[in-house]
Design brief:
Blueprint lengths: L6 E5 L7 H4 L12 H9 L3 H8 L1 E2 L5 E4 L15 H10 L6 E8 L7 H5 L3 E7 L2 H18 L8 E6 L7 H8 L3 E5 L3 H8 L9 H22 L6 E5 L1
Parallel strand pairs: 1-3, 1-4, 4-8, 5-6, 5-8, 6-7
Antiparallel strand pairs: 2-3
Length: about 240
């Protein structure tokens, strides 16, 4: 919601968690269509026509959201869907819209691997703790091979949550072998406003949103630098 341009968010987590509907919207928003219905539209070749009908606007923002699948059993339908969706998402740039794809945890059946690999910016999201970085490091090693084919373009980076708990961004970049593109400070009370629909704290929330906005601007800068190569931005969890 702090993104500088209109943006379409695709909830592509194949676990069917739908974190945005359950968290930010507190489960109070009825949604009849989502990613699964877009898959069905893809079977008839009408993804571009259905996308604006399925995407759900977030009030008082320039954000449209495509809710994810509703159960893990639907994940198998995603396997052949991503190659069809990719060119449709690229075309959104022509209308002045960016795309953010929440890929969820890597390695699951139905994960949007193709979309992730073709992104303008692909971000591995992790906390700064030792267990989190131990989990991110092998994925980073695998992803570096995937993204090594375009010399001079840094499309793979990290988004660190809570730098300094205990490792700094520089320590993390050195240990994981992926540059830290952006970070968001550790502030769980404020973060739960977005992730769990919690009441907004009286203090610190404005500073937290400023932190999120600054992270988005850093990501957007890298995205613009890489725009010559691809046409989409993706976030994935470690």
């Amino acid at each position: 919601m702090t993104w500088p341009r209109p943006v379409v968010v695709i909830e592509a987590d194949p676990s069917g968690s739908n974190g945005l509907l359950a968290g930010y919207f507190r489960g109070a928003t009825e949604v009849s269509d989502g990613l699964y219905e877009l898959v069905m539209a893809g079977m008839s070749g009408d993804i571009s026509g259905m996308l604006p009908l399925i995407a759900m606007p977030i009030p008082d923002s320039r954000v449209m959201v495509v809710p994810g699948i509703r159960s893990p059993e639907q994940a198998w339908t995603l396997e052949e869907f991503w190659p069809m969706l990719l060119p449709v998402l690229r075309d959104l740039d022509r209308t002045g819209q960016d795309v953010i794809v929440d890929a969820g945890r890597l390695g699951l059946a139905g994960s949007p691997t193709l979309v992730f690999n073709e992104a303008d910016v692909a971000l591995l999201v992790a906390r700064s703790s030792l267990p989190a970085l131990a989990g991110a490091r092998p994925w980073a090693a695998s992803l570096r091979e995937t993204f090594a084919d375009i010399a001079g373009v840094n499309r793979l980076g990290m988004l660190v949550i809570g730098p300094g708990r205990p490792y700094s961004a520089r320590n993390i970049a050195d240990a994981v072998g992926v540059p830290v593109v952006a970070s968001v400070g550790w502030n769980p009370d404020c973060a739960e406003v977005l992730s769990a629909g919690a009441r907004r704290p009286r203090w610190r929330y404005g500073r937290f949103i400023g932190d999120v906005r600054a992270a988005g601007e850093s990501i957007r800068t890298v995205l613009e630098n890489n725009r010559r190569e691809t046409r989409m931005g993706v976030i994935a969890d470690a």
